Amino acid sequence: MLKTRKGSPDFSGYGRLLRLTWPIIIQQLFSAGISSADVIMLNSVGQSAMAAGSLAAQYSNILYMVLYGLGTGVTMLSAQYWGKRDLASIQKVQGIAFRFSIPVSALFAAGAFLAPELMMRVFTTEAELIELGSIYLRAVAVSYLCWGISEVYLSALRSVERVVISTVLNVSALLLNIVLNAALVFGWFGLPRMGIAGVALATSISRVVQLFACILVSFLSKDVHLRLSDMFQRNRLLMRDFISMALPAMGNDVVWGLGFSMYSVIMGHLGSDVVAANSVVTVVRNLGTVCSFAISGATGIILGKELGAGRFEEAEADASRALRMSVAAGFLGSAVIAALIPFVLSYASLNETAMGYLRIMMYINVYYIMGTAVNTTLIAGVFRAGGDSRFGFLCDTIDMWCYGVPLGFFAAFVLKLPPMWVYFLLCTDEFVKWPWVLSHYRKKKWVRNITRETAADRA
User: Where are the alpha helices (DSSP H) in 193-351?
Assistant: First the structure.
């Protein structure tokens, strides 16, 4: 750690991290709030609607992982170019990301609109859940395409430290989503009561509005502009860097997201009671990880800027601070979940069996948060800041697909263990990779400048 006079620790680095962390915390809180609002409103519709909405939302979660991975890839490269104040390269990086995000989002939208029943059968065989989930998917389809554009642009804004603007745009969309959720589910303002379809339609409307807001901000911005024409700008050097560094980051998040979706597949075939309980506990877990994901995002921006400017010692010191903050965030997240247990158990309108599952799942997540906090900060924050995304991709591929998913299937369908034993085993995945992740952090392979000289001007 850097020292100030008389050998005292330098706390200014924590201040830099916190200044970028707090807007992201607000954004994460509102994102978790949307999930909470969806569950609360679908809970009022019925347990089946809540379970179906939870399963259908797995596709949103998978797409989120794709877009989040692309977004962190944009941040990874752009934050370092921001350290050199090379805005032309940042624009080109954003355009390259659009070449991936828009086709993928269009594919998800087409699938949700044209073949929702087929998509639901991946997660469940119960006819009622398939029918309700299909209604949700058709109504939410348009949001996927808008999301593919706005998420990349917001990531570019964050990479040039316009975190507050990015947060305001996200929070505004989320607030609109909450209001529309209530209006369309409960029939406020003379609108029809649409049930599960209302939740999905609210999401679509808010995403469309968010995209228009991004376009408006782009016109007023002095730094980064939302230009789809950048998709067609060719730059072999930046494309090579994006493919070698940013795409593994996307692959990492997709592998991780698909792994969690496979966990949902496993639990979906253990019965609707398990699915309903998991839909509630997922919301609570998201609240518990708010600070961890915020620290990860802030760490990637600050370290990227420092590495791009060649300030390696500063970057190492800030990485050490971020790791300490992630441990504190893990303890805080555990405390939040523990404190929410009595409130959640008193609120949830589940049957007796599902309530029993919910209680056990909540206690399991009290410890699970710590594993998530440390790994997220190091893999998605520290390592990616220096372009070291392949490690995370390899690490999570082995952890999820050679350990977590096979273990879950074996425990559920071969050993036929009780559902909560299966869930407990699935929640050991984050701790299995701790030794590997911490060892990689100490090797400091991530401490490097990945920018190129005048990259934007070279074909």
Answer: 196-220, 236-241, 247-268, 272-288, 290-308, 312-347
DSSP lists the bridge partners of residue 3 as 9
Q: Does 414 reside within a domain?
A: yes
pLDDT digits (tens, 9 = 90+) for 123-167: 777 888 888 889 889 998 999 999 999 989 998 988 888 888 888
Nearest alpha-carbon partner for 122 in 113, 133, 109, 114: 133
Determine the number of helices (DSSP H) and then strands (DSSP E) in the chain.
19, 0
Q: What would the two tokens of residue 395 be?
A: 């690490």
Residue 5 lies in a domain: no
Asked, for residue 458, whether it belongs to a domain, the answer is: no
- Using DSSP, state whether 9 is helix, strand or coil: strand
Q: Which of 414, 339, 330, 422 is nearest to 367 (CA)?
A: 330
Q: Which two tokens stand for residue 202?
A: 């609210």
| Number of compact structural domains in the chain | 1
Tokens coding 284: 């609570």
Q: What is the pTM of this model?
A: 0.73
Q: In sequence order, what are the residues at sequence separation of 6 or more whose Cβ sits closer than 8 angstroms to the Cβ of residue 379?
A: 252, 391, 392, 395, 396, 437
Tell me the three state secondary structure of residue 98.
helix
Q: How far apart are CA 139 and CA 109, in angstroms?
A: 10
Residue 3 lies in a domain: no
- 220-262, pLDDT tens digit by residue? 888 888 888 888 888 888 888 888 888 888 888 888 878 887 8
Give the structural domain span for 104: 14-450
